[in-house]
């Protein structure tokens, strides 16, 4: 039975809130929020990804943005019902602004707004051609010499980048660039994706051969085309590579493989980039208005510079270039690092009869895959969630609706449960000498990922090898590399025929330094992290991922990266920002953070 009282109460609040906004009465609007409140806006009000915290933060945002946003029509979303649980009332909402339609999620405490999520769904007059507006495809009637669909696509491939320029150039053709390219295609934004590899999907195919996704299938869908119902829960890397190649073709993306970006320069006067690329041996000059670096949040390898590396007689390489275990059978391997890649590589080496030692330089958070799926993801991304009516889009918005400032408070109880459920597992790891942690505040994997993008392993088997002593453990920092191995700071020597540096990746603005210049990279500053003042995420607090999917301090330069979930979810909002600029829609950006860290 519908709770009509709750439904009516929420709608009454939305009516009153909307009226205050329409009247420009900011004091009345903020009075609808409780003192401890958060408004996370994805583009609709701020033309940014921004979380306003507290009544004063919300009032400041509205003072700057309300007059141009002109919001109207606040209502509970069609077909949705407000619910109440544990003193929290939750409702899906719809609204409009002067230029867009929005969707969101509201949570009330004591009859006032506690958290509010507002997201841009579409720009008025620039909707995606879908549903009743889907393209006809066939051209009925008679017309002499008209081109076929195939001929139109061939003409576009010949012309775009040569006789006419793309509005957006995306550098990087992995999952991020492909997802964004698909969004832009549906919005009618001319875009080219450039990728140095031979084929779409090679960024996955070229990794170590045992690599599989650690995130489950329900978390990993791309925009528009979901994985089929019989797709494996954890897809092997080559299967993902083939999917991305197929997706690139059927979504009609302008994808330039075997293309390397050599330089990029922005002209402030013309508002245009000059980008020199090498396309399969031929130099091409592109002049896009917007430049997106989709080079991967885990794309720029951190290769250490230890004393004596030049003296090593064996094979040494970064984990991103690890070829797999086949060439090392019967040999000794040392893997420096203890995060996801290090564990995967160590396990594959052991399986192929390699004597392998993992060097753990600092503590690592471990969570078992099955437990993470059950406790950490099950409510939103699982077959049970799908069967209960949870869509990917709703799951994304529910996760997005929890402000980063308080997200750890929701995560800590989940990881406390995981620690209890898998107590014997963790006892075995500690007995083996593995240095465990649960994040700076016990909030576990997701917060570590959001804060620093490292420091964890989702266990799919390597941990048991460590417990059993099959993967050997050593601890401490590296002092030097010698011709036949690794010497640690405590004097321990580890003999090695191969050294794998699973030493992580640098900030994405490192790509900006390489392609555009250090001045631009420093102007933009560090990418990723929240400013939580926890290890590898220095303060001050910025409340959103630094520089990701939103305007930066360099005009017309954008960063797009992250896992498959983030590539899917945030590509929507980046694409709408780019489309608005192409169409000349005013985009007054609110609160681009100051640059505090150079990366």
From TrEMBL:
Region (Disordered) residue spans: 132-152
Annotated keywords: Oxidoreductase
TM annotation in the entry: none
Single annotated GO MF: flavin adenine dinucleotide binding
Presence of the UniProt keyword Oxidoreductase in the record: yes
Domain of life of the native organism: Bacteria
Gene3D superfamilies: 3.10.450.50, FAD/NAD(P)-binding domain
Protein name according to UniProt: NAD(P)/FAD-dependent oxidoreductase
Source organism of this protein record: Paragemmobacter kunshanensis
């Amino acid at each position: 039975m519908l709770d009509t009282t709750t439904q009516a109460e929420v709608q009454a609040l939305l009516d009153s809130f909307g009226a205050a906004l329409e009247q420009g009465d900011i004091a009345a609007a903020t009075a609808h929020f409780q003192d401890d409140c958060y408004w996370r806006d994805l583009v609709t009000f701020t033309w940014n990804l921004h979380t306003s915290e507290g009544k004063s933060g919300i009032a400041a945002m509205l003072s700057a943005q309300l007059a141009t946003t002109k919001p109207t029509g606040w209502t509970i979303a069609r077909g949705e019902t407000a619910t109440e649980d544990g003193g929290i009332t939750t409702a899906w909402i719809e609204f409009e602004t002067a230029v867009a339609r929005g969707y969101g999620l509201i949570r009330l405490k004591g009859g006032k707004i506690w958290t509010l999520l507002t997201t841009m769904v579409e720009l008025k007059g620039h909707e995606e051609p879908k549903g009743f507006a889907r393209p006809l495809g066939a051209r009925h009637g008679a017309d002499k010499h008209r081109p076929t669909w195939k001929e139109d696509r061939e003409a576009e491939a010949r012309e775009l980048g040569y006789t006419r320029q793309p509005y957006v150039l995306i550098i990087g053709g992995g999952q991020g660039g492909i997802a964004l390219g698909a969004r832009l295609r549906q919005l009618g934004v001319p875009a080219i994706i450039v990728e140095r590899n031979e084929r779409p999907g090679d960024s996955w195919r070229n990794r170590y051969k045992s690599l599989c996704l650690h995130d489950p299938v329900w978390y990993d869908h791309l925009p528009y085309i979901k994985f089929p119902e019989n797709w494996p829960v954890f897809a092997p890397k080559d299967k993902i590579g083939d999917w991305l190649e197929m997706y690139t073709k059927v979504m009609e993306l302008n994808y330039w493989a075997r293309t390397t970006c050599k330089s990029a320069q922005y002209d402030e006067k013309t508002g245009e980039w000059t980008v020199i690329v090498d396309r399969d041996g031929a130099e091409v000059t592109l002049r896009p208005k917007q430049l997106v670096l989709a080079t991967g949040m885990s794309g720029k390898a951190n290769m250490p510079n230890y004393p004596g590396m030049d003296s090593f007689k064996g094979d040494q390489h970064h984990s991103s270039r690890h070829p797999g275990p086949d060439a090392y059978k019967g040999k000794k391997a040392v893997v420096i690092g203890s995060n996801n890649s290090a564990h995967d590589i160590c396990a594959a080496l052991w399986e192929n009869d390699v004597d392998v030692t993992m060097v753990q330089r600092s503590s690592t958070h471990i969570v078992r895959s099955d437990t993470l799926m059950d406790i950490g993801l099950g409510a939103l991304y699982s077959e049970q969630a799908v069967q209960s009516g949870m869509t990917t889009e709703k799951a994304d918005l529910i996760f997005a609706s929890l402000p980063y400032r308080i997200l750890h408070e929701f995560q800590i109880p989940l990881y406390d449960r995981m620690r209890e459920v898998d107590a014997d597992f963790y006892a075995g790891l500690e007995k083996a000498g593995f240095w465990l942690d649960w994040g700076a505040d016990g909030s576990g994997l997701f917060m570590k990922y959001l804060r620093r993008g490292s420091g964890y392993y989702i266990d799919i088997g390597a941990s048991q090898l460590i417990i059993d002593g099959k993967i050997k453990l050593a601890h401490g920092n590296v002092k030097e590399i010698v011709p036949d191995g690794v010497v640690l700071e405590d004097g321990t020597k580890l003999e090695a025929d191969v050294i794998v540096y699973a030493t992580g990746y640098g900030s994405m603005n490192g790509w900006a330094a390489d392609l555009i210049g250090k001045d631009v990279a420093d102007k933009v500053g560090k990418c990723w992290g929240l400013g939580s003042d926890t290890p590898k995420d220095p303060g001050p607090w910025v409340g959103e991922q630094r520089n990701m999917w939103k305007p930066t301090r360099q005009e017309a330069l954008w960063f797009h990266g992250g896992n498959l979930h983030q590539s899917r979810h945030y590509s929507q909002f980046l694409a709408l920002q780019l489309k608005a600029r192409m169409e000349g829609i005013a985009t007054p950006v609110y609160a681009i953070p100051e640059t505090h860290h150079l990366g």
